[in-house]
Amino acid sequence: MHNDKKTVEFEEILDKINLENPAPAGEPERQYYYIKKARQYVKEKSQELGRKLTACPQTFGCQMNFRDSEKITGILELIGYEVIDSEEADFVIYNTCTVRENANLKVYGHLGKLKGLRKKNPYMMIALCGCMMQESHVVEKIKKSYSFVNLIFGTHNIYKFPELLVTALESQRMVIDIWKDTDQIVEDLPAERKYDFKSGVNIMFGCNNFCSYCIVPYVRGRERSRTPEAIIDEIKRLVADGVVEVMLLGQNVNSYGKNLEEPISFARLLQEIEKVEGLERIRFMTSHPKDLSDELIEVMANSKKVCKHLHLPVQSGSTEILKKMNRRYTKEQYLNLVEKIKTAVPDISLTTDIIVGFPGETEEDFQETLDVVRKVRYDSAFTFIYSKRSGTPAAVMENQVPDDVVKDRFDRLLKEVQSIATEVCAVHEGTVQPVLVEQINHQDAALVTGRLSNNLLVHFRGGADLIGKIVDVKLTECKGFYYIGELI
Ligand code: SAH
Ligand code: SF4
Ligand code: F3S
In DSSP terms, which residues pair with 478 in a beta bridge? Predict the structure, then answer.
């Protein structure tokens, strides 16, 4: 693990804070004050127990949540917790997701288990945050059925975690703070990276698209872009700290920068980021097809650092269903876009998200989706069964598709996706490719696992000294969704 901003820098800031004074009003100074205050409480408790206090942040959901959890972890470490991976900890934090019903069920399952663990450890604290907490019916349910939870906060005030934690430490009751929306972006809080050599970087928050099935705009609020200066500053700091690959994060990166005081396109931002010396690879997600510009295709075609991978969620192949989904493109427009990209960047790897069983989906609609899959030939696709999210327009649409029909379509789609992916993956067999080595192989410690520019994984003989380096690897054998290779 690695801290984005040098720990010494934060120590210097904390040293200067006098807790006798009232908390400052400005951010992030206010949170630094509360980090110092929380640190005192944790130290006292730790002395009383004669051991270090432990904390276990757990992430559900997408890369945004993952990055948010890195921020939570950075704060926890600064406060003095030992961060561990086991829920038998003094402080458990669930960063939740609500994009599909399954995500919610998982959280309730974990909470059920914590009830038992909590009896064993009377000092245990539990906090819930993230997208699920932005839904009032969820908070009601937790108040009623999981009253042992100490702290609940949402997606908009995550930067206030230190202050909220202090309130919870000082309170006997459940502390709840949820904001409906925000226009604020607070910079310069600590973050603790899971990987030394790669990092997610938020470029924007929220979403304005309101696809009719999707809960994200309701729980993440309106679209807000960080300034290019703040983004590049963060990337420069990351690179100085050993990062060679960044993943730019946003629900719709193609509309980045439109609402800034000085508007700038996503393609221009990429060009600026490309100039950062020492940075080797740039990835981004997610791209909404309706906003993908020719300018971006050109930048991708000419860039040395932008990876040859585009995640371009199609959701459905039926123009009729796309309209009901409020995606604002037709099947033909999507296919034309794919053609344009493939022509400009011939070695690009395309991946996608597909939903089956959207209300009103007929067998013909589903055949259109299969047709797109066959025409585009994705490297891989995330396939989802439609999940009704209360509060979204699709939840009250007529003709919800019966479960057995959806399951049957899902199975057929998965088979098609997988058989095409195996063929597409194999085309690189025999070539030599630059690979970023990420870790020792989980199954065989004599091997390391690395990632190609197109996002596929390759396993090859090598040691821990290679981790974080970009090396040339010959792809000797394709195993369906990954390669076996040889370092050259
Ligand atoms: N902003 C991204 C997607 C974020 S959610 C985009 O627009 O592409 C990730 C994926 O979850 C979506 O692409 C969609 O395929 C899926 N998803 C979202 N809501 C869903 C729902 N109600 N049921 C099933 N899948 C859903
Ligand atoms: Fe959801 Fe659509 Fe926004 Fe993606 S673009 S987060 S699918 S509303
Ligand atoms: Fe889930 Fe929230 Fe991401 S709902 S998918 S964690 S934005």
Answer: 483
The CA 478 to ligand 1 mean position distance, Å, reads: 30
Q: Please check whether residue 231 is in contact with residue 246, taking contact to mean a CB–CB distance below 8 angstroms.
A: no
Which of 98, 104, 204 has the most ligand 3 atoms within 8 A of CB, as the residue to mutate? 98
How far does the centroid of ligand 3 lie from the alpha carbon of residue 99, in Å? 6
DSSP readout, 160-195? Answer: GHHHHHHHHHH-SS-EEE--S-----------EES-
Q: What is the mean pLDDT of residues 329-352?
A: 97
pLDDT (mean) for 242-271:
97
What does the pLDDT look like over 458-488, one tens digit per residue?
A: 999 999 999 999 999 999 999 988 999 999 9
393 CB within 6 A, ligand 2: no
The CA 215 to ligand 1 mean position distance, Å, reads 9
- Gap from CA of 426 to ligand 3 centroid (Å): 32
Task: State whether the beta carbon of 251 lies less than 6 angstroms from ligand 2.
Answer: yes
Bin 257: left if φ > 0, else alpha if -120 < ψ < 50, else beta: left
Cα 141 to Cα 463: distance, rounded to the nearest angstrom: 49
Query: Residue 1 pLDDT more than 80?
Result: no
| Cα gap 365→361, rounded to integer Å | 6
CB-based contact 299:271 (threshold 8 Å): yes
Q: Is 211 in the pocket of ligand 2 (CB under 6 A)?
A: yes
Q: Which of 203, 214, 312, 390 is the best mutation target for the ligand 1 pocket, counting ligand atoms within 8 Å of the beta carbon and taking the most?
A: 214
**If you take atom 1 of ligand 3, which residue's CA is the nearest one?**
97
DSSP 13-41: HHHT--TTSPPPSSTTHHHHHHHHHHHHH
Mean pLDDT calculated for residue range 126-150? 97
Q: Is the pLDDT of residue 362 over 60?
A: yes
The length of the chain is: 488
Return all residues near 93 (Cβ < 8 A) that are at least 6 apart. 55, 56, 57, 58, 72, 76, 126, 127, 128, 129
216 lines ligand 3 (CB under 6 A): yes
Cα 481 versus chain centre, distance: 22
**Which residues 6+ apart lie within 8 Å of 288 measured at CB?**
209, 252, 254, 255, 313
Instruction: Return d(Cα 241, Cα 478) in angstroms, integer.
Output: 34
Instruction: Output the CA angle 355-357-358, nearest 5 degrees.
Output: 75
Tell the residue nearest (CA) to atom 10 of ligand 1.
Answer: 353
- Does residue 25 register a pLDDT over 80? yes
- The H or E element spanning position 462 is none
